[in-house]
Backbone:
């Protein structure tokens, strides 16, 4: 399966150290800056699709959430987290708690895009049944989404993703460039097909008006927010956006959304994109980890507590649930699905009444 974060760090440490002669001169750096400016200018001129929405630097009320009561934010975390979500929401629904049904806006990133789209489209039981099946036959899922034995171009993208030290646009573009150049085993229509097979999402339109997905433009580094208005404008189907939101660099994708090749929504400065629901009265935020501990799928520094504090600074009351990960778990290993389903289901027993009270 995919190399662990420790493996990737070790690979980075083993790379050759080049002499100073290979460091770009100041003139070269200026030229690079000039070409970046030119690239951004051209992109801004051509792309009027409404998809790019930078995360605000300071707490800011979102025009997508202002005046809403209940909102739901679902973070990412690979196959493990989709399975955990399946167990969790199955347990909640058994107890008569339906946060996705109660929410007026649902923001999903990567694994959260999978579960959010299936919940809001009415296909959750399909997704849960699929993951329940694959938990018994993980080798079949590994054939559907082969991520083992990465080649050199995939390793480069993975190492870039884990080697970044900030979430700046330059860092996102550097990861995106490596993602575009990776010869992944699952890409293009294969990613979209997998999203459709698992979720049952629409391949022609955007049926759930309250569903929002996130992604990142590999070329420009823009954070992309896809909702019904811009999806209809750009002829983006729900399954396309879900596939893009889960296109992890060096693993699967990139995926075309509109005219942008996209990578995973989690490869961003914001961990769960809670700023999208800023200004709503109440927001239930569910993430895999706190952003800096446990198993992670990116090296970009995150802190979900800081993100939630910024959300609450806009007047939104937030409830944060952190799923947590077992020590050393590989988030992309299908063999972890069974344990994840069970853990999510058991966690629902602890959280159901709290959620019911929070959204009452």
Residues:
């Amino acid at each position: 399966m995919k190399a662990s974060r420790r493996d990737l760090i070790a690979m980075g440490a083993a790379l050759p150290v080049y002499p100073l002669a290979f460091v770009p001169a100041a003139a070269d750096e200026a030229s690079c800056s000039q070409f970046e400016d030119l690239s951004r200018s051209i992109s801004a001129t051509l792309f009027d699709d409404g998809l790019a929405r930078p995360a605000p630097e300071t707490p800011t009320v979102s025009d997508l959430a202002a005046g809403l009561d209940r909102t739901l934010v679902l973070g990412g975390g690979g196959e493990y987290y989709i399975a955990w979500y399946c167990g969790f929401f199955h347990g909640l629904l058994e107890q008569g708690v339906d946060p996705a049904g109660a929410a007026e806006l649902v923001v999903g990133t990567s694994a959260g895009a999978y579960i959010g789209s299936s919940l809001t489209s009415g296909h959750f039981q399909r997704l849960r049944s699929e993951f329940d099946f694959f938990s018994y036959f993980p080798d079949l899922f590994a054939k559907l989404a082969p991520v083992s034995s990465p080649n050199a171009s995939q390793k480069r993208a993975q190492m870039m993703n884990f080697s970044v030290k900030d979430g700046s646009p330059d860092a996102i573009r550097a990861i995106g460039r490596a993602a575009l150049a990776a010869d992944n085993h699952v890409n293009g229509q294969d990613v979209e097909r997998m999203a459709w097979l698992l979720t049952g999402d629409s391949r022609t339109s955007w049926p759930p008006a309250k569903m929002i997905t996130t992604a990142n433009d590999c070329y420009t580094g823009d954070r992309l927010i896809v909702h019904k208005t811009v999806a209809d404008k750009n002829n983006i189907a729900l399954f396309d956006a879900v596939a893009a939101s889960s296109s992890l660099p060096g693993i699967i994708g990139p995926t075309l959304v509109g005219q942008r090749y996209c990578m995973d929504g989690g490869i961003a400065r914001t961990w769960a994109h809670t700023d999208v629901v800023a200004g709503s009265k109440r927001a239930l935020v569910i993430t895999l980890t706190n952003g800096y501990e446990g198993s992670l799928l990116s090296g970009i520094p995150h802190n979900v507590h800081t993100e939630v504090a910024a959300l609450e600074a806009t007047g939104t009351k937030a409830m944060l649930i952190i799923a947590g990960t077992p020590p050393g778990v590989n988030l992309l290993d299908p063999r972890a699905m069974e344990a994840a389903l069970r853990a999510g289901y058991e966690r629902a027993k602890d959280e159901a009444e709290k959620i019911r009270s929070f959204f009452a």
